Amino acid sequence: DQPHRVARGVFAGSVIGFLPLPGLQFVAAWGAARLVRGNVLAALLATFNTNPVTTPFFAVLAMTLGHWILGIEAPLNAEYIGKAFANAGADLWYNFLAIFGPERTRWDGLIQFWHEIYWPYFIGALGPGIILSVIAYYITIPLVEAYQKASAAKAKERGEKRRSLKEAVARAASRLKHRGET
Predict the structure, then answer these.
(1) What is the pTM of this model?
(2) What's the mean pLDDT in 57-73?
(3) Which of 23, 33, 102, 145 is the most buried (most CB within 10 A)?
(4) Please, are residues 32 and 13 in contact by the beta-carbon 8 Å criterion?
(5) In terms of Cα–Cα distance, which of 8, 36, 18, 40 is closest to 27?
(6) CA distance 83 to 109
């Protein structure tokens, strides 16, 4: 594909990769790539910028930045974050069971999780995610151009080898034919 389309795909997928969209990153990357007219495969591959090794560091940075932007003064330590996840999970399970019984749903843990963990993470990830994705965009263009030039040169070289081999075979066949006639 054209270098700028690949770079737009990398940009779209990279931004989505930084956002906390568990289970939806491929779908969101596909949509974002289509929106910016980028290469969809490049977008899908660029979502892997976050992985089990890099995500914890980026998540802490994003949540800290998000708390600062939103003016949230909740403590950001492992115990607090773990408790927020546990409360949200307990609410999800309780609400699932409430579907089949007389209990009423409860949302306090989920609301707390949304306001103090998820939303700050999302907001805090946008800025660094966009900055890093713009850098990836500008790095991708010359890399794709260099790769395409190298591929074209290799293809040309293979074509020349095939052509010279065909010519050698034709010369040999001509010599054999000429020997057979004399």
Answers:
(1) 0.78
(2) 92
(3) 33
(4) yes
(5) 40
(6) 9
